[in-house]
TrEMBL record:
Pfam families: Alpha-mann_mid, Glyco_hydro_38C, Glyco_hydro_38N. InterPro entries: Gal_mutarotase_sf_dom (IPR011013), Glyco_hydro/deAcase_b/a-brl (IPR011330), Glyco_hydro_38_C (IPR011682), Glyco_hydro_38_cen (IPR015341), Glyco_hydro_38_cen_sf (IPR037094), Glyco_hydro_38_N (IPR000602), Glyco_hydro_38_N_sf (IPR027291), Glyco_hydro_57/38_cen_sf (IPR028995). The keyword Protein biosynthesis does not apply. Binds 1 zinc ion per subunit. It catalyses: N(4)-{beta-D-GlcNAc-(1->2)-alpha-D-Man-(1->3)-[alpha-D-Man-(1->3)-[alpha-D-Man-(1->6)]-alpha-D-Man-(1->6)]-beta-D-Man-(1->4)-beta-D-GlcNAc-(1->4)-beta-D-GlcNAc}-L-asparaginyl-[protein] + 2 H2O = 2 alpha-D-mannopyranose + an N(4)-{beta-D-GlcNAc-(1->2)-alpha-D-Man-(1->3)-[alpha-D-Man-(1->6)]-beta-D-Man-(1->4)-beta-D-GlcNAc-(1->4)-beta-D-GlcNAc}-L-asparaginyl-[protein]. The chain crosses the membrane at residues 7-26. GO terms for molecular function: carbohydrate binding; mannosyl-oligosaccharide 1,3-1,6-alpha-mannosidase activity; metal ion binding. Belongs to the glycosyl hydrolase 38 family. This is Alpha-mannosidase. Its EC number is 3.2.1.-. Its cofactor is Zn(2+).
Length: 1123
């Protein structure tokens, strides 16, 4: 009866709020000129004005109705479950056995404006070429093309250039990537000599040109290149030396997350802005396949043109035959042309000299003058180059023939010819060999008008500008009838059925560590806020502003790891060990977070004292070595108890379960205002049967904020509930040894399905394997089959075997088997329930939370250890009854979704794709999304999702590495499995719940214990930096302190704010996210100065009260001065 009265009172309050809201809306419509329609659209009569106001009022009423409806649903849900405030009742079990949690009295709603749903159902990009259609069209038959093995015979008429001579730009370059040697070793042995010689040799002849892309190497050289700096600047300003792309590295495009891709691009461009100039053209000759995300990021950084190389040979042949190798690359979701960027695709096998002058590598090799007899390398085709002298200079016409044939593959009469390879031009001799001989060839060609050619050295931008000039269009515009393309270029095969799909998973330990560090770059946000607060309080001198150097070090370590031979897992073992700088970066970021949190949670800043050797807070976990898994910090409780500071690194309020490791089972948790929270006490298992204690409690955290909690050792509290733990053992006589208050039951395993459940989900598990079998949502009458299986791939018995790059399986995979049945542990409690199945080579942990958002998806951790295997690859399959046909969806770099098809005409390995953050299958009823916290390879066949978990391979795959993959680590692969009911089928974007799930998985709450102090702990308080709520379809990508112009390791007063407006699929039922989630059509963002993505170009400053609009999928950068 009491509950019914509470609901009645609550309902009355809602009614009052609704009436008052309507009053405010009427007043707002009457007085807010921004809400009025344009006066020119209506007659200026009182009736028309009134009609206009009524229409607006109807729209506002509809929006208000949605909000009231959501609040009503929340109230009804309380009535159904009988949940009340924590002060009233304890957690209890409902009639169906699931736990019901105390409700914190704060209703939540999901209110998405109808206009924000239109993007997902609107027409997609209008393009001439869609890559999914190209895949459907091609036979992938690999016919012998003659001298151009993967192409066709090229012919031309001698008079084709009579009216318009062929312009040839030969572009010398040197590709520098830390791969077989470490970064420092390459720099010492080769790179510094390349750059030193570059300055000297380019200065000898103003006709010489050169391009450079990797700023990590260039910046290291610049530090000690004082004698060369002035001349290098002169060469750049004179157009002889061009910096292309300008990223910290030439990033991988398959595994890298878009946050890290942007961050390394900013790091490179910020260095260039401080020291040199701004890049205009992109150069990517070595990433193993190309993502559609990269052209978007380059376009947003004001790069106007780009070049790509490693693309499936069948696609290159098709594009060559249709003369479509140059195109405008448009984003698949762009209905206009605002994302278009001009792109040049290289047509042949490689970017080395034999495969760049024309279709015949035997002839091209004769014009690679580093291969002159007596050198370290020669031509495999047995015809060596000859130095150019007057007697043989006419052989330039042999080269001209190749130029003409290559030009026939393009639409313009302007030709690009790269001249370089890996670490070329490291000796002065090669500069002379290439430049002097080529200049003689150019002089001969240019002095014979009957040849109709103008040949010269050039930079990449020289080439692109010549194309634009030939068609009379501005830089970056579409030349003539060049095609418009959308889609991506995965998977990559360089010959036969050799698909480079193995590297999507190779060395998953480091792929996972990379994402952990990216998550910790939330330190950027906390640091920016702390420094701004310290400046405002006049305490900048007392705050460790020098932590900025740690941020710079972490940015550059993460940036270096995005390289296409680093995050890909395709470097030598000693180089991988050198990437241990990642651990140093992680430790540095934790220190930045601790120092910022210390300052921000101090209630009275006068009590703030910073001591370098006495940190105020402790880190949440530790890693013993760079190749070990983290160990959670043990919190020592006592009757006075430590304080715990929790950091929420995302821009939305967060209602979630937090787990900490404690030294006692007598645990009590209080909020800042003294409210006791429910605690689930459970076991921390060091093995299948060994355990200690951990405490889980539910918290509500402010967006980008810090909250303070008090933990202490207390006599049994009714709010502390012990988990129920059951060991399912098959014929074993093992008994668990446990702390007495944490009893463990055991029983013999049987084949019958068993279940765990929350208020939202019920999961079914196999009684035999302990693996997931089904998911049933509370609001769905249908139980959906989702059967987890583990499979083993072998490699081919022939000479071509799987390696770091290639996936060459010996056929379909075989089910994973072991002699002993698994040990299965079932844990149930009010905040979470989980099932852990322990196998010899992996451990599956499936957990569900009794919390909004967290509770809508299934938390899965697979601990993999295949170090005793030989030439084996372990995969996880999810076999469902979702009828997706041959269509599935994978993300590109965590930024956008790309539809895929499983093609029977392709070999099995050709149907795997990179998954950076998620993949899903769907039919007209359900969508099943696998969210991932690390990049892995994935495929789908017959209602399945299959992800490769780890690979151990004993041999090289003949792509230059010279090693197999034998340095495997024990790796924790983390996922979230989200099952959603579909209301309608639309073009594919993640739902709002899916976006939230991905954010929670990739940005975990950090739990920072306050270390005991002799002088006692000063008063602490919650830090909530946001004055207003950020719309839940806007992701705050970064708040990055900008360097000073003089000192790159000191912050300026300015901060870069990077925002990404998410595109949302509304074809799903609304869910209670646990916080108020609304959208604003991308408006209501008050900012200062719009910038290009990498902060090198600025737009007109906005007034402080200006409102900007972000379109769905748009990423934008702004420069702020925090006060």
């Amino acid at each position: 009866m009491k509950l019914r009265k509470q609901v009645t009172v609550c309902g009355g309050a809602i009614f009052c709020v609704a009436v008052f809201s309507l009053y405010l809306m009427l007043d707002r419509v009457q007085h807010d000129p921004a809400r009025r329609q344009n006066g020119g659209n209506f007659p200026r009569s009182q009736i028309s004005v009134l009609q206009n106001r009524i229409e607006q009022l109807e729209q506002l009423l509809e929006e208000n109705h949605q909000i009231i409806s959501h609040i009503k649903d929340s109230v009804m849900e309380l009535t159904d479950t009988g949940a009340v405030s924590p002060s009233g009742h304890l957690p209890f079990r409902s009639a169906n056995g699931s736990w019901v949690l105390p409700f914190d009295g704060r209703p939540a709603f999901l209110a998405v404006k109808p206009q924000d749903c239109q993007f997902a159902v609107s027409t997609r990009a209008q393009t001439d070429v869609q890559m999914l259609d190209v895949y459907s069209l091609l036979k992938f038959d690999n016919l012998d093309g003659g001298v151009w093995k993967q192409g066709f015979d090229i012919t031309y008429e001698p008079d084709e250039w009579d009216n318009e001579p062929l312009q040839v730009f030969v572009i010398p370059h040197s590709h520098n990537d830390p791969w077989v040697k470490t970064f420092d070793k390459y720099f010492t042995d080769q790179t510094q000599h390349i750059l030193n010689n570059m300055v000297v040799k380019l200065a000898e002849d103003s006709r010489r040109k050169f391009i450079w892309s990797e700023i990590s190497f260039f910046a290291k050289w610049w530090e000690t290149a004082d004698v060369y700096k002035q001349e290098a600047m002169r060469l750049i300003l004179g157009g002889q030396l061009e910096i292309v792309t300008g990223g910290w590295v030439m990033t991988d495009e398959a595994n890298a997350h878009y946050f890290a891709m942007i961050d390394q691009l900013i790091e490179g461009h910020q260095w260039l802005e401080r020291n040199l100039i701004t890049p205009q053209s992109g150069w990517a000759v070595d990433p193993f396949g190309h993502s559609a995300t990269m052209p978007y990021l380059l376009k947003k950084a004001n790069v106007t043109s780009m070049l790509i190389q490693r693309i499936h040979y069948s696609i290159k042949k098709h594009f060559s035959s249709t003369r479509s190798l140059e195109f405008m690359w448009r984003q698949a979701w762009d209905t206009g042309s605002s994302t278009d960027i001009f792109c040049h695709m290289m047509p042949f096998y490689s970017y080395d000299v034999p495969h760049t002058c024309g279709p015949d590598p035997k002839i091209c090799c004769q014009f690679d003058f580093k291969r002159l007899p007596g050198g370290q390398i020669n031509c495999p085709w047995k015809v060596p180059p000859k130095s150019v002298v007057e007697a043989n200079v006419a052989e330039a016409e042999l080269l001209l023939d190749q130029y003409r044939k290559k030009s026939k593959l393009y639409r313009s009469k302007v030709l690009l010819v790269p001249l370089g390879d890996d670490f070329r031009y490291d000796k002065a001799l090669e500069w002379d060999q290439q430049y002097i001989n080529y200049q003689k060839l150019f002089d001969y060609m240019n002095s014979h008008p009957e040849l109709h050619i103008q040949a010269q050295f050039g930079t990449l931008t020289d080439y692109f500008n010549a194309v634009y000039k030939a068609y009379g269009v501005p830089q970056g515009s579409r030349p003539g009838d060049f095609p418009v393309l959308s889609g991506d270029f995965f998977a990559y095969a360089d010959r036969e059925d050799h698909y480079w799909t193995g590297y999507y998973t190779s060395r998953p330990f480091y792929k996972s560590l990379d994402r952990v560090i990216e998550s910790h770059l939330g330190a950027e946000i906390l640091y920016s806020l702390a420094v701004a607060n310290a400046r405002h309080a006049g305490m900048e001198g007392r705050y460790p502003v020098t932590d900025y150097a740690l941020l710079v070090d972490a940015r550059r370590s993460v940036g270096l790891f995005q390289h296409h031979d680093a995050i890909t897992g395709t470097a030598k073992e000693n180089v991988v060990i050198d990437y241990g700088t990642l651990l140093r970066a992680l430790i540095g970021l934790k220190r930045v977070i601790i120092n910022a949190a210390h300052f921000l949670v101090m209630k009275n800043k006068e009590f703030y004292r910073f001591y370098q050797t006495e940190p105020f807070l402790e880190t949440d976990d530790r890693r013993a070595t760079q190749d070990s898994l983290p160990q959670r910090t043990l919190i020592e409780l006592d009757p006075a108890g430590p304080y715990l500071v929790l950091f929420n690194p995302i821009e939305q309020e967060r209602l979630c379960a937090v787990t900490v490791l404690v030294n006692t089972v007598r645990v009590r948790v209080l909020t800042e205002d003294g409210q006791t929270l429910p605690v689930q006490l459970s076991a921390q298992w060091s093995s299948a049967t060994q355990m200690s204690a951990e405490a889980t409690f539910m918290v509500r955290l402010p967006p980008l904020g810090l909250a303070v909690f008090h933990l202490y050792d207390s006599a049994d509290s009714p709010m502390t509930i012990r988990s129920d733990t059951l060991l399912r053992l098959s014929g074993r006589s093992v008994s668990a040894r446990a702390l007495d208050p944490l009893p463990v039951r055991s029983q013999p395993a049987d084949a019958q399905t068993f279940y765990i459940s929350t208020q939202t989900l019920t999961l079914g598990f196999s009684g035999t394997t302990g693996l997931l079998e089904s998911i049933k949502r509370k609001d769905d009458p249908q139980e959906v089959k989702i059967q987890m299986q583990f499979m083993i791939y072998g490699t081919r018995p022939s000479k071509d075997k799987s390696g770091a790059y290639l996936f060459l399986p010996d056929g379909k995979p075989k089910p994973y088997n072991q002699k002993e049945p698994p040990a299965v542990r079932v844990v149930e409690g009010p905040l979470f329930s989980e099932v852990v199945a322990q196998y010899q080579h992996f451990q599956q942990t499936v957990r569900i939370h009794n919390v909004p958002v967290d509770g809508l998806s299934v938390d899965i951790t697979i601990l993999v250890d295949i170090r005793d295997q030989t030439n084996k690859e372990l995969s996880m399959r999810l076999v469902t009854n979702i009828q997706n046909g041959d269509v599935f969806y994978t993300d590109l770099n965590g930024y956008q979704i790309q539809p895929r098809r499983f093609y029977q005409k392709l070999p099995l390995q050709g149907n795997f794709y990179p998954m950076s953050s998620q993949a899903y299958i769907q039919d007209s009823h359900h969508r099943l999304t696998l969210h991932t916290a690390q990049a892995l390879g994935i495929s789908s066949l017959d209602s399945q999702l299959e992800v490769i978990m780890d690979r151990r391979l004993m041999q090289d795959d003949n792509r230059g590495l010279g090693q197999g993959l034998k340095d495997n680590k024990k790796t924790a692969n983390r996922f979230r499995l989200l099952l959603e009911m579909m209301d309608s089928v639309t073009t594919s974007f993640p739902s709002m719940v899916s976006h939230a799930t991905s954010s929670l998985l990739n940005h975990e709450v950090l739990a920072l214990p306050v270390l005991p102090k002799r002088r006692g702990i000063p008063p602490l308080q919650t830090f909530a930096p946001l004055k207003s709520v950020i719309p839940c379809d806007v992701h705050l990508l970064n708040l990055r302190s900008i360097q000073t112009q003089k000192d790159p390791e000191s912050p300026s007063p300015y901060t870069a704010l990077l925002l990404h407006r998410l595109a949302t699929d509304c074809g799903f039922e609304g869910q209670n996210l646990g916080y108020n989630c609304s959208t604003t059509q991308g408006r209501d963002l008050q900012l200062l100065q719009p910038m290009s993505l990498t902060l090198m170009h600025s737009s007109m400053p906005l007034a402080n009260d200006s409102i900007i609009t972000l379109e769905p999928m748009e990423i934008s950068a702004f420069k702020l001065k925090l006060r």
